[in-house]
Amino acid sequence: MATAPRIAVLGAGRMGGALVQGWVRAGLVPPDHLLIYDRSPNPDILALADQGAVLNPDPSEARPADLFLLAIKPQTWRPGAETIAQHLPKGAMVISVMAGITLPTLAEVFPHQDVVRVMPSTPASIGQGVNLVVTPGAFSADQHRQLQALLAPLGHTEVMTDEDELNRATALSGCGPAYVFLLAECMIKAGIEQGLSPELARTLTLKTISGSAALMEQAHETPETLKTNVMSKGGMTAQAVETLSQAGGLPDLMREGVAKAIQRGRELAAPSA
Questions:
Q1: d(CA 254, CA 265)
Q2: Sheet holding 67-70: strands in order across?
Q3: 219-270 pLDDT, tens per residue?
Q4: Which CATH number is 112's domain given?
Q5: In whole angstroms, what is the distance from residue 251 CA to residue 269 CA?
Q6: Whole-angstrom Cα distance, residue 154 to residue 24?
Q7: In this structure, are 90 and 128 located in the same domain?
Q8: Does residue 196 fall inside a structural domain?
Q9: Per the CB 3.0–4.6 Å rule, which of 17, 127, 191, 240 could disulfide with 196?
Q10: Per the structure, how many domains does the chain have?
Q11: Last residue of a domain, one of 123, 140, 162
Q12: How far apart are CA 127 and CA 117, in angstroms?
């Protein structure tokens, strides 16, 4: 993008905040180009306000915004979005990161703007996120380039074919960091219960997870093969993996968790959700 865009943001919590921080960190958007609407801003957002971001301005101030980031909870999005929509310029891009709220529903509130759905993941704040994108059919090549320029500093981008695929993929990548954090939490607690200090258990867990992820990215083998390579017959790893893989264990729980996340996304898309 030739010039830094002016961005209005509704909701700067975990996901909205991660995107804003990623843009600022990458130098794509200076803080004084941000209009942030958030009733309970976290310390990172307050720090951006100290650097020039405008916090909770009058909605009319959104009039010159090039882009509107809609990152509020999907259960409560419409009143605030409708208020700001009245002041957005025609043709401004609206990026929704809300689960379940479909493009046709968004278009009801933003009939004169160009709406796109993006489901990022929180590692976007450090440029290591995954961005899932679905756009309306009328989205132009120039708009796609503009969107790509916005998402590139945040991590890897995948374009989805439709909104149901977006929902299914979100259950894997958008929700996925929480799965990894839960795994880390469980590993740390297990290490402490076996007598390791909290500091050592945390260090060993985080280094093991980050190193294993790096190996999976660089190796040519599948995760299944890499798992087998770690195990020796009758050894410590084999015993632990066998226990985790038994009926009702990690594989079954992961399948059930992902399926329930997808179902919840579909429920959020329903008018009564």
A1: 17
A2: 54-55, 34-37, 7-10, 67-70, 93-96, 114-119, 129-134, 155-159
A3: 999 999 999 999 999 999 999 999 999 999 999 999 999 999 999 988 887 7
A4: 3.40.50.720
A5: 28
A6: 10
A7: yes
A8: yes
A9: 191
A10: 2
A11: 162
A12: 19
Domain boundary among 105, 135, 162: 162
164 Cβ neighbours under 8 A, 6+ residues apart: none
pLDDT (tens digit, 9 = 90+) per residue, 136-189? Answer: 877 888 888 889 988 998 899 999 989 999 999 999 999 999 999 999 999 999
Comparing CA positions, the residue from 43, 51, 45 lying closest to residue 19 is 45
Residues 98 and 201 in one domain: no
Same structural domain, 114 and 45: yes
154 and 36 part of one domain: yes
145 and 40 share one domain: yes
Consecutive H or E run containing 242: helix 236-245
DSSP letter at 234 equals T
Residue type, 40: S
Mean pLDDT of 133-138: 86
Q: Would you give the DSSP letter of residue 13?
A: S
Residue 121 falls inside a structural domain: yes
Q: Provide the CB-side half-sphere exposure for 24 (13 A, CA).
A: 21
Give the C-alpha separation, 2 to 8, whole Å: 19
- 2-37 pLDDT per residue, tens: 578 899 999 998 889 888 988 998 898 999 999 999
Q: How far is CA 42 from CA 8, 49, 68, 177, in A?
A: 17, 11, 20, 20
Mean pLDDT of the chain: 92
- The mean pLDDT of 54-83, rounded to a whole number, is 90
